[in-house]
């Protein structure tokens, strides 16, 4: 393999991530449909709780200096604070402090962050639905689904670029994909248990 082909393969990590997690993404959509997230404010509040717990898990990974070196704009990412405010609007208080990512290392952590950042894209649809069904907004109960101030696409593109330009080798890429699958599994577990979350 010549240097240029090798570089192209390395650059396609974001594509690999998308392909390797496509089935998990489908599963998330199905789980969300099954749990009828928009059927009632109660269900929507439980969904917001799942977002809150997942965001706490992901933001815990921001503390790793290798992560912040690679993704310098972490301070604008992460939606746990927004989700917490939404929960207050919805009169719900998280009862748990559990973080499941204590043992997650670099570079798997980047896979988790991929799941969280990618979910901001689908959140555009969810935001519209929260507006249409309940009249929620970026200022009330749907802050965590709102676009970043710069816009979803710009922030996503910057994330993609950071990941693709880092030049991870194949073994590292495998670990990042492993991390993404772990992230999807965690969110899937939260969704599957949505109505029992406290
Ligand atoms: C009903 C629920 C959902 C819908 C309708 C949805 C929809 C979408 C859409 C349309 C995109 C592609 C946007 C684009 O390429 O411009 C996308 C991307 C993505 N979504 Fe979702 N999504 C949903 C739930 C989720 C959940 C629960 C997660 C994870 C917790 C998630 C993670 C991702 C990721 C990681 C990507 C990026 C894929 C890539 O690499 O390009 N999505 N979603």
UniProtKB/TrEMBL annotation:
It holds the Pfam family Heme_oxygenase. GO terms for molecular function: heme oxygenase (decyclizing) activity. InterPro entries: Haem_Oase-like (IPR016053), Haem_Oase-like_multi-hlx (IPR016084). It comes from the Bacteria. GO terms for biological process: heme oxidation. This is Biliverdin-producing heme oxygenase. It comes from Acinetobacter chinensis.
């Amino acid at each position: 393999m010549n240097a240029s082909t090798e570089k192209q393969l390395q650059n396609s990590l974001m594509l690999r991530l998308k392909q390797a997690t496509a089935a998990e993404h489908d599963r998330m959509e199905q789980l969300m449909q099954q749990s009828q997230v928009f059927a009632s404010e109660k269900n929507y509040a439980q969904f917001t709780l799942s977002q809150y717990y997942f965001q706490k898990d992901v933001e815990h990974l921001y503390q790793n200096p290798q992560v912040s070196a690679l993704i310098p704009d972490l301070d604008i990412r992460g939606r746990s604070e927004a989700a917490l405010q939404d929960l207050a609007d919805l009169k719900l208080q998280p009862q748990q402090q559990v973080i499941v990512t204590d043992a997650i290392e670099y570079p798997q952590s980047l896979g988790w962050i991929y799941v969280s950042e990618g979910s901001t894209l689908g959140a555009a649809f969810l935001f519209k639905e929260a507006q249409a069904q309940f009249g929620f907004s970026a200022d009330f109960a749907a802050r965590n689904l709102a676009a970043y101030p710069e816009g979803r696409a710009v922030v996503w593109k910057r994330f993609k670029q950071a990941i693709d330009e880092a030049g991870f080798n194949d073994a590292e890429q495998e670990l990042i994909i492993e991390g993404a699958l772990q992230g999807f599994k965690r969110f899937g577990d939260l969704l599957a248990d949505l109505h029992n979350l406290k």
